[in-house]
Amino acid sequence: MRTAPCSLAGSSSLPPRASRSSPLLTAPRPTPACTSLRRLYLGAWRFVDTATLPRGASFPRLQVLVLGAIALEDRDLDFLLAASPVLEVLTIVGSVEKLRARLTSHSLRCAQFCLVLVDEVAIVDCQSLERCFIWRCPSQRYRVKIGHAPQLSILGYLEPGVHVLEIGNTVIKAGIKPSLKTTVPCVQMLALHLHFRVHNEIKMLPSFLKCFPNVETLCIQSEQTKEPTSNLSLKFWQEAGPIKCVQSRLKTLAFRDFHGDESEFAFLMFITENAQVLEKMNIVLEFRKPYKPEELASKMMALDNARWASGSKKVGYKFSRLGEGGGSV
Predict the structure, then answer these.
(1) Residues 170 and 294 occupy one common structural domain
(2) Residue 81 — pLDDT band, cuts 50, 70, 90?
(3) What is the total count of domains within the chain?
(4) End-of-domain residue from the set 148, 168, 196
(5) pLDDT band for position 82 (50/70/90)?
(6) 167-196: string of b/e by CB count within 10 Å (b at 16+)?
């Protein structure tokens, strides 16, 4: 992929163009004419050695940067953020090298990482950041660190037991007690991706939820596993202790790809019996799951007849469309 030359007069957006000559091209050095760019999209690209480039605002008007299938090193991302003082949206889709993404920007409002090989995603100092999305990054285990981000209201998809969550300088572990140093009160929408039958993931879920005491919307993407290690009951949640966001803040629960497992059902019952201000619970049933009608009906009836802490039944069901399983909430 390659972009049109930066010297095109009046150009404020450079879309990618296909190139058959090379699967991975090297980006040219920034030129003075790049100062007019507002949106930049690069695909199948390898950056020049940014360590040799002069510091400063190479892209003083750039607001949107989208990178796809990129060979990007840590220092390249640092350079791009420093060179783009008004950047608001950063999206990276696919990478060919492992990346430690350390975000420092006073203008960035949205950061998105999809299918990116990462060792770490760290929000170091982003005073304007409102949304941060991490989706299907293939690394086995990596760190997600939240530093200074006072405007962060939407965060996902965290993976308890897979992501090592660090808030400030504190690593969140199972059973940790919430404190000012281990909570992010500004987050109002939280999305989680997990396997309900993998013990190491579920045992971290209460601790993750306790880190975000003001969550009003909780989105759950449930995945099946070929090697289940547990099937936790409602007793596990009762012993986990009070979770502030569930008890007094949670208004909407979106649960996608319900497979009918006991661990999933126990979690839904916990929400039902503890979420005092819940307004709606939307459950999407996995279309490809071979449900036994009597088992499914039994679980649905149990939810309907549960002691709803909010005062009345708030649950609704639908089937995912064929081929839609595994998508986002």
Answers:
(1) yes
(2) very high
(3) 2
(4) 148
(5) very high
(6) beeeebeeebebeeebbbebbbbbbbbbbb
